[in-house]
Amino acid sequence: MTSQTQYWNRLIQPGIVALVGAGGKTTVLSKLVEYGRLQGRPIVVTTTTQLYESQVAQYEPIYTKDINEVDEYCTKRIQQGYCGAWFSGITRTKVDSVDCESIDNLSTLHPNWQIVVEADGAKEKWLKAPKHTEPVIPSQTKTTIGVVNLQMLGASLDEDHVHNLELVQSIVNREEGAIVTPSMLAQIVLHKQGLFQYSKGKKVLFCTGYDTVQHRIIDDFISHVLDSDITAIVLADGYKASCEIRRIIQCR
């Protein structure tokens, strides 16, 4: 039986990893840090959008735009067995983004580090389609992990569940209130203005909420996305702290 450590280790690799989508990005980020530290892997957390300061305070971040200060601080944190964390500042309750060029530069300085970038915002909804200005993904990104919450299958297209609702409606050509089907969710994943817009590197589809939906419905959804350029599909139970990977389907 494959352990959680083995599953998560398949996602922990040197280089920049960008997290996009909705319904579990910060969960994936925290799990990559948790299992990366268990394995002694050098990991740095940052964002090209915004995160609540409370979500990242545990990582004891540095707030600066000076790459030399970042290099020194994160190197020290990693040598001490922690992850590095870096944001350009704090505005009220949120940490401020770091520009892509600076993240690329840090990756060039330390190609053996995994730099995990939360590159997309979703206002804690389960599904989104990005605006033309998002996500913001560094050019040297090795892997883009697109997150969807499978609890959207059978849920309504409405403001309670969906960020950028009108954009999602335009992709699936459905009215507000329509029930999300496997083929509709697949459209959001595969559309050129959908989940992986502007993605770089290999694509990994990370699905949370695997334990909340009938598996025959999930299998129907998977059948719609298998014949694509997605490298792997990760199916995970739960959400937030309870998230555990149950299956990884290698597609390419």
TrEMBL record:
Source organism, top-level taxon: Bacteria
InterPro entries: YqeC
Name of the protein described by the UniProt record: Selenium-dependent hydroxylase accessory protein YqeC
Organism of derivation: Veillonella tobetsuensis
